[in-house]
Hints:
Layout lengths: L10 H13 L3 H13 L1 H32 L1 H24 L1 H10 L8 H14 L1 H10 L11 H29 L1 H5 L2 H25 L1
Amino acid sequence: MFLGAPIPSKIxxxxxxxxAIILAPGPSVLFTIARAIxxxxxxxxxxxxxxxxxxxxxxxxxxxxxxxxIQSSDxxxxxxxxxxxxxxxxxxxxxxxxxxxxxxxxxxxxxxGAPSTIRIIRDGFVVGILNPKGIVFNAAVTPQxxxxxxxxxxxxxxxxxxxxxxxxxFCDGTWGLLAGTARNWLATNLSRIIxxxxxxxxxxxxxxxxxxxxx
Length: 215
């Protein structure tokens, strides 16, 4: 139990999907890598801490607003399922199509001096809570892994949001540590980061298709 929330029967599947999405190099991973290349491992990890905290805060807001609606309407729940699968496909295509643009933007993040610890965490928090892609993920993808028949949908959504935030904290933090260690290797060859972006896009497209097939 998590604050009275029933444990969703699909929690294992949710963890697998979450890990696949988190490990696939998307905007948050590239943002972390950019800061690791520019300022080192400490800044990258603090950025991830702020980002994960912001994501969880946003997931709370989405759960409180979307949960009751999903609980009461089969039609809306079906629409959310379709939206989730199509959204992941869109993210994958967008990642591949804009791979050069996004990678350059991430690397340019570190052109100035390293900010203070408070600002690093604050910046990560703002990125996490205001990220529209995160909002759509919580509203359209996460609800597919709840058990509507068990009730207390809001708390189930909060539980899944907390799990995602913890997984992101660990996985993105690992990316930051690795990138900080290999900062010279990454910074001297943009094509390596572009390759990571392409791989991430392909993974998200596959996940989106699998979700649509299972509906």
